[in-house]
Amino acid sequence: MEHNKKITRAGGVSLPVSLRREYGIEPGEKVNVSVNAAGVIELKRIEGSCLFCHSDEELKLYEGRHICRKCRAAIGGL
């Protein structure tokens, strides 16, 4: 599936409704935007990021804040 989109003046790109519906992407969801070694722009859904290292992997909530597994281990296994 391929979609051609324009980038807005503010730098935004909207995702086509068919893509959002197919993957269950809801308004307000957070995504990480990165560029891989081949120069391809990638979007990755995230719940949030670690309070300390900003990782988006293996997150758990602690008092309303996301903390990743590595940082939990470093501060005593919360």
TrEMBL record:
- The SpoVT-AbrB domain covers 5-51
| Pfam families attached to this UniProt entry | MazE_antitoxin
**SMART domains in the cross-refs:** SpoVT_AbrB
Coiled-coil segments on the chain, per record: none
**InterPro entries named in the record:** SpoVT-AbrB_dom (IPR007159), SpoVT-AbrB_sf (IPR037914)
Question: Which molecular function term from Gene Ontology is one that the record holds?
Answer: DNA binding
> What is this protein's name?
Transcriptional pleiotropic regulator of transition state genes
